[in-house]
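User: I'm putting together a teaching handout on how multi-component assemblies are represented. Below are the sequence lines for each component of a complex, exactly as they appear in our records. Could you produce the 3D structure of the whole assembly as C-alpha cells, so the students can see both representations side by side? Please keep the chain order the same as the input.
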Amino acid sequence: MPHHRKTDNKDFFTRVYEVTKLIPYGRVTSYGAIARYLGTGRSARMVGWAMNASHTSSIFIPAHRVVNRNGFLTGKHHFGNTKTMQQLLENEGIIVENDQIVNFSEKFWDPATELK
DNA sequence: ATTCTGACAGCAA
DNA sequence: TTTGCTGCCAGAA
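Assistant: Of course. Below is the structure of the complete assembly, with chains in the same order as your input.
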C-alpha cells in the first residue's frame, strides 16, 4: 500500500470493525490488541476513534467488547447511558466490578492468536 | 494548510 | 504500587 488517502482511512475503520465483529459473545479484547493485529501497533487510540464512530454505523458493532489493556471500561461514557456498556457485558455473562472486568485474562480474546 | 484532540499504551519517577 | 508524562496519528469537537 504505497498511498494513504481518505479511502484508506476508511479502510482502517472498516478493518477495525471487521475484527471487532469477530469478538465472540461473552469475550472481550483491547484497543491495543486490535491495533497490533492490524499491524498498526501504535494506533490504539485510533481504534477508540473507530469505536466512537461505530455507534453511527447501520451495522451492529459490539463496541462494548472492547476495553483497555487492564480490563477497564474506559469507553462507558460513549454509550447512551453510563451503565449501558456494563449492562451489555453482564448480559453476556461477564462480571464487572468498579468499571473493571473480573477475571479479565480468562475473558480476553486476542485476535493475533485466535485468528489465522 | 494548521492546530487541536483523544474510548490508548508504555514507561519513567 | 501508583501517578503522570509522552509518543502516537487520523479526524475534525
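A couple of points students might notice: Residues 30-32, 35, 41-52, 63, 66-69, 73-78, 85 of chain A lie near DNA strand B (CB under 10 Å from a C1'). The longest strand of chain A covers residues 29-30.
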